[in-house]
Design brief:
The protein has a domain of 155 residues: Immunoglobulin-like (Sandwich). It is α+β, with helices and mostly antiparallel strands and 303 residues long. Helix 1 packs across helix 2, helix 2 runs antiparallel to helix 3 and helix 5 packs across helix 6. It contains seven helices and nine strands. The protein is globular. The protein has a five-stranded mixed beta sheet, covered by helices on one side. A four-stranded antiparallel beta sheet has the order 2-1-4-7.
């Protein structure tokens, strides 16, 4: 088995080590290689249950330590586990019945560019390589892929009061603001189809789930993270609150919209904020607004 793995061991492998076995199982899973014995499939399923929880814990740890790049790597690793593919593989290999790299010469587009493909066009491309049933499976999978439009603005307190502004804009230092993210799903699919994220026969069914990250790529800081475990339907709004730095001047931030299951569908948006001197008035208004919200929640809970 060792001679077929993609990432070789740096040291002499210890064949009685459980770490070696887990490494082999994961690499075979990502390469979709056939195991020499059926017992390994059972071991892999048990391993996948554990590794997904471990990766989720690593994401939480990276967020706690404000580590942007390691957190993104963990999310990409999670996507790889769910899709049973290496992130360096052509993304069309996540499609059903597409198991050969030779198909990369047939498809000139990336996965995200095939979402709007017509059935007739897809048939013309693949009819000499696959059956009509297989082509139908690929088309249905492409139609289920989430087509999400994303727009966002910033809300908070300025000297003129509470406002919602378009970006780029100026903000006060050491002040809480909220990115209001509006999501629109263009394609509509049936409820049970949300769980069909992968073509792997080993992975369990899984609902769509999303992760929002606000980070600073210049400093490598992860500013805030938010998981969104609900299905994005026609219109959805997500709020992402953060506190600006106390360093004055222009700052470039990046908003990441990531799936925890799909490969090659991540979205990334850069925007500029100009950080000005802190304002005591706006800080007081922000604190009062937070207290009012908390009071409203407690009153609603008592009713």
């Amino acid at each position: 088995m060792i001679d077929r793995i993609r990432i070789p061991f740096r040291t002499q492998p210890q064949f009685d080590s459980p770490h070696l076995k887990a490494n082999l199982l994961i690499q075979y899973h990502l390469s979709r290689l056939e195991f020499p014995r059926i017992d390994y499939v059972t071991d892999l399923k048990s391993c996948l249950d554990q590794i997904i929880r471990i990766i989720q814990a690593l994401i939480d740890l990276c967020a706690h330590k404000a580590l942007l790049s390691p957190c993104l790597l963990c999310i990409h690793f999670l996507q790889m586990i769910i899709q049973s593919r290496w992130i360096t593989d052509p993304d069309i290999l996540t499609l059903p019945h597409i198991t050969d790299r030779s198909f990369t010469h047939i498809f000139s587009s990336h996965l995200c560019q095939l979402i709007d493909i017509k059935h007739e066009t897809l048939t013309n491309i693949l009819q000499s390589h696959l059956t009509s049933t297989q082509i139908d499976d690929i088309y249905e999978y492409l139609m289920r892929l989430p087509q999400i439009e994303l727009n966002f603005n910033i809300r908070g307190f300025w000297s003129t009061g509470e406002e919602t502004r378009q970006l780029p804009t100026n903000v006060h230092a050491d002040q809480e603001y909220t990115l209001q993210i509006k999501l629109k799903r263009i394609n509509r699919i049936r409820r049970n189809e949300f769980r069909q994220l992968t073509t792997s026969s080993v992975n369990k069914p899984k609902d769509e789930s999303w992760i929002f990250i606000l980070g600073n790529t210049d400093t490598g800081e992860l500013i805030c993270i938010k998981r969104f475990n609900q299905i994005i339907r026609s219109h959805t709004t997500v709020s992402l609150s953060f506190v600006t730095t106390n360093i004055l001047g222009r700052q470039r931030l990046t908003l990441y919209f990531l799936s925890d299951g799909y490969l090659a569908l991540d979205q990334q948006y850069d925007f500029i904020i100009d950080i000005e001197s802190p304002s005591l008035q706006t800080q007081v208004n922000t604190e009062l607004d937070s207290l009012v919200d908390e009071l409203d929640k407690r009153l609603a809970a008592l009713q």
